[in-house]
Design a protein that fits this description.
The protein is an alpha/beta fold. The chain contains 7 helices and 7 strands; from the N terminus they run αβαβαβαβαββαβα. The chain has a 7-stranded mixed beta sheet with strand order 3-2-1-4-5-7-6, with helices on both faces. The chain starts with a helix and ends in a 6-residue tail after the last helix. This is tRNA threonylcarbamoyladenosine dehydratase.
C-alpha cells in the first residue's frame, strides 16, 4: 500500500512513518479524518482517545458515522477502520473522557512515548492540559481550534497560537496558555467569521472539519519527515 507514497517521500520516508507513534485525542469530524490520513500514509501506531458514540447528528461530517454505526463507540469503529486500511498499523482505543482532574484517565497516557500528539477535542481545560503535558514531555503537539459554524475551508491556517485571530476558541486557548507561560504552540484555526445560526449548537457541514483534519494530518506527516522548515 506504500508504493505510491514512496514515490513522493522515498523508502526512508515510508520507514520513518512506519516507526512513528501518534496519539490522537478526539475522533469526531476533525480527528476522524486525521486518523484516516495517518493510517493511509503508513503511520505505524495511532492511539485514539474519545468517550463518545456515533449519533445521527454526526453523519453529516464524521467519517465513521453512518446509519449502521449509530450507537457504537467511535474509538472502536476507528480502530477497526485503521486495521482495515493498514493492517500493519497498531491502533489502541481508549474509550474515555479526558479531563485533567481525572487522574485515573490522564495517568494512562505517557506522552513521551509518542512522536506526535494531536488534540481534536472541544473541552478547553483538556486542550490546555494536553498541550502542557506534550510540551513537558518534549513531544510535538498540534491543536485544532474551532471548525463549527464555518463554510469556507480555504480560510484554515496552521500557525502559532499567538498569531490566531477571529476564532473564539483560539482566543480562550491563547489567553489560558499565556497565563500559564506556555508559548510556541502549533494550531489550526480559521480566519472565517463564525456564521450565526441563532442557537447554541454549532452548525457543521461535510467539507469543513474533514479539510481541517486532513490539513492537520499533513502537517504531522511533514513534521515527522522533517520536511517543515518554518
Amino acid at each position: 500500500m506504500t508504493e505510491r507514497t514512496a514515490l513522493l517521500i522515498g523508502e526512508q520516508g515510508v520507514k520513518r512513518l512506519s516507526e512513528a507513534k501518534v496519539l490522537v485525542f478526539g475522533v469526531g469530524g476533525v480527528g476522524g479524518f486525521v486518523c484516516e490520513a495517518l493510517a493511509r500514509a503508513g503511520v505505524g501506531q495511532i492511539d485514539i482517545v474519545d468517550n463518545d458514540v456515533v449519533s445521527e447528528s454526526n453523519i453529516n461530517r464524521q467519517i465513521i458515522a453512518t446509519w449502521e454505526t449509530i450507537g457504537q463507540a467511535k474509538t472502536e469503529l476507528m480502530q477497526k477502520r485503521i486495521a482495515s486500511i493498514n493492517p500493519a498499523c497498531r491502533a489502541e482505543a481508549f474509550h474515555c473522557f479526558y479531563l485533567p482532574e481525572d487522574k485515573t484517565v490522564t495517568d494512562q497516557f505517557h506522552f513521551a512515548a509518542y512522536d506526535y500528539v494531536v488534540d481534536a477535542i472541544d473541552t478547553v481545560s483538556a486542550k490546555i492540559d494536553i498541550i502542557i503535558r506534550s510540551k513537558g514531555a518534549g513531544v510535538p503537539v498540534i491543536s485544532s481550534m474551532g471548525t463549527g459554524n464555518k463554510l469556507d475551508p480555504g480560510k484554515f491556517e496552521i500557525t502559532d497560537i499567538s498569531k490566531t485571530s477571529v476564532c473564539p476558541l483560539a482566543k480562550v486557548v491563547r489567553r489560558e496558555l499565556r497565563q500559564r507561560g506556555v508559548n510556541d504552540v502549533k494550531v489550526l484555526f480559521s480566519k472565517e467569521e463564525p456564521i450565526k445560526n441563532g442557537g447554541r449548537t454549532p452548525g457543521s457541514i461535510s467539507f469543513v472539519p474533514s479539510t481541517a483534519g486532513l490539513l492537520i494530518a499533513g502537517e504531522v506527516i511533514r513534521d515527522l519527515l522533517g520536511l517543515n522548515t518554518k
